[in-house]
Design a protein that fits this description.
D-Maltodextrin-Binding Protein, domain 2
Protein backbone atom coordinates (compact mmCIF):
# COMPACT_ATOMS: atom_id res chain seq x y z
CA UNK A 1 0.00 0.00 0.00
CA UNK A 2 1.41 3.40 -1.01
CA UNK A 3 1.80 5.80 1.94
CA UNK A 4 0.49 9.31 1.34
CA UNK A 5 2.81 12.21 2.23
CA UNK A 6 1.93 14.07 5.41
CA UNK A 7 0.01 17.29 4.90
CA UNK A 8 1.92 20.21 6.46
CA UNK A 9 -0.24 23.01 7.75
CA UNK A 10 1.29 26.29 8.99
CA UNK A 11 0.42 25.30 12.56
CA UNK A 12 1.92 21.85 12.09
CA UNK A 13 5.11 23.30 10.66
CA UNK A 14 5.42 25.73 13.57
CA UNK A 15 4.95 22.93 16.11
CA UNK A 16 7.54 20.79 14.35
CA UNK A 17 10.04 23.65 14.40
CA UNK A 18 9.40 24.27 18.10
CA UNK A 19 9.88 20.60 18.95
CA UNK A 20 13.14 20.57 17.04
CA UNK A 21 14.44 23.56 19.00
CA UNK A 22 13.45 22.01 22.31
CA UNK A 23 15.18 18.77 21.38
CA UNK A 24 18.51 20.42 20.50
CA UNK A 25 19.85 20.94 24.04
CA UNK A 26 18.88 17.41 25.04
CA UNK A 27 20.64 15.95 22.03
CA UNK A 28 23.70 18.08 22.70
CA UNK A 29 23.77 16.94 26.33
CA UNK A 30 23.43 13.28 25.37
CA UNK A 31 26.69 13.14 23.43
CA UNK A 32 28.53 15.77 25.52
CA UNK A 33 31.47 16.29 25.50
CA UNK A 34 32.78 15.82 21.96
CA UNK A 35 35.84 18.09 22.14
CA UNK A 36 38.33 19.42 24.75
CA UNK A 37 37.13 21.64 27.61
CA UNK A 38 38.88 24.48 29.37
CA UNK A 39 38.96 25.62 32.99
CA UNK A 40 39.50 29.38 33.13
CA UNK A 41 41.66 30.43 36.09
CA UNK A 42 41.81 34.09 37.01
CA UNK A 43 45.39 33.96 38.31
CA UNK A 44 48.84 33.23 36.87
CA UNK A 45 50.57 29.84 37.13
CA UNK A 46 52.13 29.08 40.50
CA UNK A 47 49.28 30.26 42.74
CA UNK A 48 46.74 28.22 44.68
CA UNK A 49 43.84 28.52 42.22
CA UNK A 50 46.06 27.35 39.37
CA UNK A 51 47.34 24.47 41.51
CA UNK A 52 43.83 23.23 42.33
CA UNK A 53 42.77 23.44 38.68
CA UNK A 54 45.81 21.45 37.55
CA UNK A 55 45.25 18.75 40.18
CA UNK A 56 41.61 18.36 39.16
CA UNK A 57 41.85 18.72 35.37
CA UNK A 58 43.55 15.42 34.43
CA UNK A 59 41.23 13.20 36.50
CA UNK A 60 38.10 15.14 35.48
CA UNK A 61 39.23 14.85 31.87
CA UNK A 62 39.54 11.07 32.26
CA UNK A 63 35.97 10.91 33.57
CA UNK A 64 34.64 13.01 30.70
CA UNK A 65 36.93 11.24 28.16
CA UNK A 66 38.20 14.59 26.88
CA UNK A 67 41.28 16.72 27.47
CA UNK A 68 40.82 19.66 29.85
CA UNK A 69 43.05 22.70 29.35
CA UNK A 70 43.81 25.13 32.18
CA UNK A 71 43.53 28.63 30.73
CA UNK A 72 45.22 31.28 32.93
CA UNK A 73 43.66 34.75 32.53
CA UNK A 74 45.26 36.70 35.35
CA UNK A 75 44.54 40.14 36.76
CA UNK A 76 42.32 42.27 39.00
CA UNK A 77 41.97 39.68 41.79
CA UNK A 78 40.52 37.13 39.41
CA UNK A 79 37.84 39.38 37.93
CA UNK A 80 39.41 39.39 34.45
CA UNK A 81 39.16 35.61 34.27
CA UNK A 82 35.64 35.73 35.72
CA UNK A 83 34.51 38.21 33.07
CA UNK A 84 35.97 36.06 30.27
CA UNK A 85 34.16 33.04 31.70
CA UNK A 86 30.86 34.92 32.04
CA UNK A 87 31.03 36.03 28.39
CA UNK A 88 31.98 32.57 27.07
CA UNK A 89 29.62 30.32 25.15
CA UNK A 90 27.31 28.46 27.59
CA UNK A 91 27.83 25.05 26.01
CA UNK A 92 29.59 23.18 28.82
CA UNK A 93 33.05 23.54 27.30
CA UNK A 94 33.95 26.72 29.24
CA UNK A 95 34.34 26.15 32.97
CA UNK A 96 35.64 28.58 35.59
CA UNK A 97 37.25 27.80 38.93
CA UNK A 98 35.70 30.78 40.69
CA UNK A 99 37.06 32.26 43.90
CA UNK A 100 35.76 34.01 46.99
CA UNK A 101 37.58 37.10 45.77
CA UNK A 102 35.98 37.20 42.32
CA UNK A 103 32.43 36.21 43.29
CA UNK A 104 32.08 37.94 46.66
CA UNK A 105 34.82 40.36 47.69
CA UNK A 106 35.60 42.34 44.53
CA UNK A 107 31.90 42.83 43.61
CA UNK A 108 31.35 44.20 47.13
CA UNK A 109 34.27 46.63 46.92
CA UNK A 110 33.74 47.91 43.38
CA UNK A 111 31.69 47.53 40.22
CA UNK A 112 32.71 44.46 38.22
CA UNK A 113 31.70 43.70 34.59
CA UNK A 114 29.53 40.71 35.54
CA UNK A 115 26.86 39.71 38.03
CA UNK A 116 28.23 37.01 40.37
CA UNK A 117 24.89 35.19 40.47
CA UNK A 118 23.05 36.07 37.25
CA UNK A 119 25.97 35.59 34.85
CA UNK A 120 27.05 32.17 36.09
CA UNK A 121 25.51 28.73 36.45
CA UNK A 122 26.89 27.20 39.64
CA UNK A 123 28.07 23.58 39.41
CA UNK A 124 29.58 22.72 42.81
CA UNK A 125 31.74 23.94 45.64
CA UNK A 126 35.19 22.46 45.03
CA UNK A 127 37.63 23.15 47.89
CA UNK A 128 37.94 24.99 51.19
CA UNK A 129 41.31 26.33 52.33
CA UNK A 130 42.92 28.72 54.81
CA UNK A 131 45.31 31.61 54.51
CA UNK A 132 48.58 31.84 56.41
CA UNK A 133 51.00 34.53 57.56
CA UNK A 134 54.34 33.86 55.85
CA UNK A 135 57.57 35.78 56.49
CA UNK A 136 61.05 35.67 55.04
CA UNK A 137 63.50 33.79 57.33
CA UNK A 138 65.59 36.95 57.74
CA UNK A 139 62.70 38.78 59.44
CA UNK A 140 63.31 38.81 63.22
CA UNK A 141 59.62 38.07 63.91
CA UNK A 142 58.94 34.32 64.24
CA UNK A 143 55.55 34.53 65.98
CA UNK A 144 52.45 36.69 65.58
CA UNK A 145 53.16 38.65 68.82
CA UNK A 146 56.69 39.34 67.58
CA UNK A 147 55.26 40.50 64.24
CA UNK A 148 53.02 42.97 66.06
CA UNK A 149 55.92 44.29 68.14
CA UNK A 150 58.14 44.68 65.07
CA UNK A 151 55.41 46.45 63.12
CA UNK A 152 54.85 48.95 65.92
CA UNK A 153 58.55 49.79 65.87
CA UNK A 154 58.37 50.87 62.21
CA UNK A 155 56.62 54.07 61.05
CA UNK A 156 53.52 52.99 59.16
CA UNK A 157 54.15 49.38 60.15
CA UNK A 158 55.46 46.57 57.97
CA UNK A 159 54.39 45.95 54.38
CA UNK A 160 52.38 42.81 53.74
CA UNK A 161 51.49 41.29 50.38
CA UNK A 162 48.39 39.50 49.14
CA UNK A 163 47.39 38.02 45.80
CA UNK A 164 45.39 41.15 44.97
CA UNK A 165 43.22 44.02 46.13
CA UNK A 166 40.19 42.54 47.85
CA UNK A 167 41.65 39.04 47.84
CA UNK A 168 40.96 36.73 50.81
CA UNK A 169 44.55 37.33 51.94
CA UNK A 170 43.97 41.09 51.83
CA UNK A 171 40.84 40.83 53.96
CA UNK A 172 42.56 38.42 56.36
CA UNK A 173 45.28 41.05 56.80
CA UNK A 174 42.78 43.86 57.31
CA UNK A 175 40.81 41.84 59.85
CA UNK A 176 44.09 41.09 61.65
CA UNK A 177 45.04 44.80 61.69
CA UNK A 178 41.68 45.73 63.17
CA UNK A 179 41.55 43.05 65.86
CA UNK A 180 45.25 43.25 66.83
CA UNK A 181 45.29 47.06 66.65
CA UNK A 182 48.40 47.20 64.45
CA UNK A 183 49.38 49.22 61.38
CA UNK A 184 50.56 47.39 58.24
CA UNK A 185 50.62 48.55 54.61
CA UNK A 186 48.98 46.33 52.03
CA UNK A 187 50.86 45.55 48.77
CA UNK A 188 48.55 43.91 46.20
CA UNK A 189 49.99 41.50 43.62
CA UNK A 190 48.43 39.92 40.51
CA UNK A 191 48.55 36.47 42.08
CA UNK A 192 50.08 34.30 44.76
CA UNK A 193 52.91 33.07 42.53
CA UNK A 194 54.50 36.51 41.94
CA UNK A 195 54.04 37.49 45.60
CA UNK A 196 55.70 34.31 46.81
CA UNK A 197 58.63 34.86 44.43
CA UNK A 198 59.25 38.31 45.92
CA UNK A 199 58.93 37.01 49.48
CA UNK A 200 61.46 34.24 48.83
CA UNK A 201 63.73 36.74 47.09
CA UNK A 202 63.73 38.99 50.15
CA UNK A 203 61.81 41.86 48.54
CA UNK A 204 58.82 41.35 50.86
CA UNK A 205 58.78 40.87 54.64
CA UNK A 206 55.25 39.43 55.01
CA UNK A 207 52.84 37.61 52.71
CA UNK A 208 49.29 36.60 53.72
CA UNK A 209 49.12 33.61 51.39
CA UNK A 210 46.71 30.83 50.61
CA UNK A 211 48.00 27.86 52.59
CA UNK A 212 48.71 25.69 49.54
CA UNK A 213 51.08 28.36 48.24
CA UNK A 214 52.98 28.49 51.52
CA UNK A 215 53.29 24.82 52.50
CA UNK A 216 56.15 23.86 50.11
CA UNK A 217 58.52 26.76 50.98
CA UNK A 218 57.78 26.34 54.69
CA UNK A 219 58.62 22.63 54.57
CA UNK A 220 61.75 23.46 52.57
CA UNK A 221 62.85 26.04 55.18
CA UNK A 222 62.66 28.92 52.69
CA UNK A 223 59.84 30.73 54.53
CA UNK A 224 58.48 30.81 58.06
CA UNK A 225 54.80 30.26 58.86
CA UNK A 226 53.66 32.38 61.80
CA UNK A 227 50.02 31.31 61.89
CA UNK A 228 47.07 30.07 59.83
CA UNK A 229 43.88 32.11 59.63
CA UNK A 230 41.20 29.44 59.98
CA UNK A 231 39.30 28.25 63.01
CA UNK A 232 41.56 25.22 63.47
CA UNK A 233 45.11 24.16 62.66
CA UNK A 234 45.87 22.64 59.28
CA UNK A 235 46.71 18.95 58.98
CA UNK A 236 49.39 19.93 56.43
CA UNK A 237 51.24 22.02 59.07
CA UNK A 238 49.94 20.86 62.47
CA UNK A 239 52.69 22.67 64.36
CA UNK A 240 51.60 26.08 63.10
CA UNK A 241 49.05 27.78 65.41
CA UNK A 242 45.97 29.69 64.37
CA UNK A 243 45.95 33.48 64.64
CA UNK A 244 43.09 33.22 67.14
CA UNK A 245 44.98 30.96 69.56
CA UNK A 246 48.19 32.96 69.20
CA UNK A 247 46.53 36.20 70.20
CA UNK A 248 43.53 34.81 72.04
CA UNK A 249 41.39 36.72 69.56
CA UNK A 250 38.00 35.05 69.72
CA UNK A 251 36.18 35.24 66.43
CA UNK A 252 39.20 35.72 64.20
CA UNK A 253 38.70 33.49 61.15
CA UNK A 254 39.40 34.19 57.49
CA UNK A 255 39.01 31.12 55.33
CA UNK A 256 38.91 30.80 51.55
CA UNK A 257 37.15 28.65 48.95
CA UNK A 258 36.95 27.89 45.23
CA UNK A 259 33.96 26.57 43.31
CA UNK A 260 33.26 25.45 39.75
CA UNK A 261 30.87 27.49 37.62
CA UNK A 262 30.02 27.88 33.94
CA UNK A 263 28.39 30.69 31.95
CA UNK A 264 24.69 31.26 32.64
CA UNK A 265 22.55 29.38 30.16
CA UNK A 266 24.57 26.17 30.20
CA UNK A 267 22.02 23.34 29.72
CA UNK A 268 20.88 21.79 33.03
CA UNK A 269 21.67 18.27 31.81
CA UNK A 270 25.28 19.29 31.21
CA UNK A 271 25.47 21.02 34.61
CA UNK A 272 24.28 17.79 36.24
CA UNK A 273 26.86 15.73 34.33
CA UNK A 274 29.65 18.11 35.34
CA UNK A 275 28.50 18.08 38.98
CA UNK A 276 28.54 14.28 39.11
CA UNK A 277 31.93 13.95 37.42
CA UNK A 278 33.49 16.68 39.57
CA UNK A 279 32.23 15.01 42.75
CA UNK A 280 33.71 11.69 41.61
CA UNK A 281 37.00 13.43 40.81
CA UNK A 282 37.23 15.02 44.28
CA UNK A 283 36.60 11.61 45.91
CA UNK A 284 39.44 9.95 43.98
CA UNK A 285 42.27 8.99 46.37
CA UNK A 286 45.07 10.54 44.31
CA UNK A 287 43.23 13.84 43.96
CA UNK A 288 42.31 13.97 47.66
CA UNK A 289 45.87 13.16 48.71
CA UNK A 290 47.33 15.82 46.41
CA UNK A 291 44.97 18.45 47.81
CA UNK A 292 45.18 17.48 51.49
CA UNK A 293 48.98 17.42 51.43
CA UNK A 294 48.83 21.14 50.59
CA UNK A 295 46.29 21.94 53.30
CA UNK A 296 43.39 22.07 50.83
CA UNK A 297 40.13 20.34 51.83
CA UNK A 298 37.96 18.89 49.04
CA UNK A 299 34.35 20.02 49.38
CA UNK A 300 31.27 19.40 47.26
CA UNK A 301 27.73 20.69 47.00
CA UNK A 302 24.71 20.90 44.75
CA UNK A 303 24.41 23.96 42.49
CA UNK A 304 21.64 25.28 44.74
CA UNK A 305 23.75 24.88 47.89
CA UNK A 306 26.69 26.63 46.25
CA UNK A 307 24.49 29.56 45.18
CA UNK A 308 23.11 29.93 48.72
CA UNK A 309 26.65 29.81 50.13
CA UNK A 310 27.80 32.62 47.82
CA UNK A 311 24.89 34.73 49.08
CA UNK A 312 25.73 34.04 52.75
CA UNK A 313 29.43 34.81 52.19
CA UNK A 314 28.52 38.11 50.55
CA UNK A 315 26.53 39.16 53.61
CA UNK A 316 29.41 38.13 55.92
CA UNK A 317 32.24 39.92 54.10
CA UNK A 318 30.25 43.09 53.40
CA UNK A 319 30.54 43.89 57.11
CA UNK A 320 34.33 43.42 57.13
CA UNK A 321 34.77 45.50 53.98
CA UNK A 322 32.71 48.37 55.40
CA UNK A 323 34.62 48.25 58.71
CA UNK A 324 37.97 48.38 56.85
CA UNK A 325 36.66 51.10 54.51
CA UNK A 326 38.18 49.32 51.52
CA UNK A 327 38.11 51.27 48.26
CA UNK A 328 39.19 50.31 44.71
CA UNK A 329 42.55 51.62 43.52
Amino acid sequence: MTQQPAIRTPLGAACAALLALVALPAAGAADYPTRPLRIIVGFPPGGATDLVARIIAPRLGESLKQQIIVDNRAGANGTIGAEIAARSTPDGYNLHLATLGALVISPTITKVPYDPLKDFATISMTVQLQNMFLVHPSLPAKTIPELITLSKQKPGGLNYASSGLGSPGHLAGELFKTMAKVEMTHIPYKGGGPALADLLGGQLPVFVAVISTGVPPVKAGRAVALAVTGAKRSSALPGVPTVAETLDLKGYEASNWYGMVSPAGTPPAIIKRLQNELHATLKAADVRDALLSRGIDPDTSTPEEFTAYIQSETAKWEKVIRAANLKPN
